[in-house]
Amino acid sequence: MMAGYHAAEKIWKGDIIALHLTLYYSVIAAVLSVWLGFMADINRISMHRYYHDRLREAFMPSRIEMGPPYGDDECSLSPTDPNLFELSDLACAYKKNNLVWDVQTPYHLINTTLSVMTSSDAKHRGRGGENFIFSPLYCGSKATGYRQTKDYADGKFTLATAFTISGAAVDPNTGATRFGPLALLMTLFNVRLGYWATNPNRDRNKQSRSSLNWFYLIMREMFQTRMHENASHVHLSDGGHFENLAAYELIRRKCKLIVIGDAGADPKCTYDTLGLLVEKVRVDFGVRITIDTSPMNPRDKKEDRLQRSQSPYVVGTIHYPGEKGKIPGVLVYLNTVMFDGLPEDINTYKRMNPEFPEQTTADQFFDEVQFDAYRELGYQAGLRMIWDASEALELKTTAGDPLPHPWREGLSNPQPVPWKSLSSEQQKELKEMLNATKKVRGATPAG
Fold it and tell me: How far is Cα 179 from Cα 168, in angstroms, rounded to an integer?
């Protein structure tokens, strides 16, 4: 009897010791996790940083040489390392009675998506995202407000970081990954390209990194809490999660001529990204877009093995509210489609790869032939659009001669010129715009 009691006592003491050790190591793990939360930047230890470095190496030179855009000494920029090239470096200050911030065209708008899936605003919560821009002069969104780029994040936000966020397609809590268990697993396995950034509406003095606990941010991302526009730090990802054509902010600014290229995989020719843009700007801005995409529909495969379309682009009209009696804006929409007059190497690639040019973006390892097929297709589509514009708008060379139209040579059937669908007033205004050189001065967050 006593032997059994002592045996039970030993087992009980062993369990107590095991429990104490478990609690001990759990406390150590918790303390270590909190400590690492203050010390480890999750933006640097995630896939974002790897993606950032690869994109920077591909699209930014090792040294950036920039001279004064207007010849003003105040605008001069010294050669700098791409890692240190800040977004605000695209702008410069010059003196004309007082200090004014200026930027040379083109004025870059880098679009990202602000995660607002737990917002108190029903529209934001339903969409799950809101457009958030980075530009040389301002950063932010309508939901968060805007801050001057030279002041945002103490003016240290780099250009490479901005365009990396803009392409952060794989990320929890966006689109199809908003499903809770999936978002949790993606965060646990660090399958995330998104970025945690300071909210522009926070006071500049509160942007210090010393008070930031990254562990708290990763918990918010993992369990989908406080993902809204009023938090001290907001989560940003690919701008395509909100609007994939990057035209939303241009229409907000009431641009008169907008040219957009749609290179997304769309094998059924639904033009869904264009449809979503039309719906969003109508709901948000009261803007009405009229456009006919039928000339881009491919011919039946029995009729044409290459399934060529009449045109790689179409031209539509943008009707801005409150501008009755004014000339409407023009929207040019290009898509990756086969069309007459392409070089034979593209036609050959199409015969060998019937899914071209609608191959899925899951293929991230293009070889030389595949890469050049897409590059040349886009180049030819752009040339076709420009040559058509030169004919319809009667543009001329600097010598006063009409521009040539080499793509028409050798074609048995006359091809449509979408530019001619515009009114004479629109064509006249476009001609004046294309013959003028303009600069952006005194830009505002939404203009």
Answer: 18
CA 194, CA 197: separation in Å to the nearest integer? 10
167-176, 234-243, 414-423, range with greatest mean pLDDT: 234-243
Q: Write out the DSSP string of 209-220.
A: GGG--HHHHHHH
In our burial notation (b when 16+ CB lie closer than 10 A, e otherwise), range 369-382 reads eeeebbeebbebbe
- Residues 326-345 have pLDDT tens digits of 889 999 999 999 998 899 99
Mean pLDDT of the chain: 80
Instruction: Indicate whether 28 belongs to any domain.
Output: no
Domain of residue 349 covers: 248-441
Report yes or no: 387 and 405 within 8 Å, Cβ to Cβ.
yes
Domain boundary among 242, 275, 305: 242
* Whether pTM exceeds 0.90: no
Cβ–Cβ under 8 Å, residues 388 and 422? no
CA distance 437 to 13: 85
Strand order in the sheet with 257-262: 257-262, 329-335, 313-319, 288-290
Please tell me whether residues 352 and 232 are part of one structural domain: no
Task: Tell me if 286 sits within 8 A of 295, measured CB to CB.
Answer: no
Token pair belonging to 30: 């918790």
Domain boundary among 242, 263, 289: 242
DSSP string, 65-106: EE--SSS-GGG-EEEE-GGG-BGGGGEEEEEESEEEEEEPSS
- Per-residue burial over 117-128, b if 16 or more Cβ lie within 10 Å, else e, is bbbeeeebeebb
Name residues whose C-beta falls within 8 Å of residue 107's C-beta, 6 or more positions apart in sequence: 135, 136, 440, 443
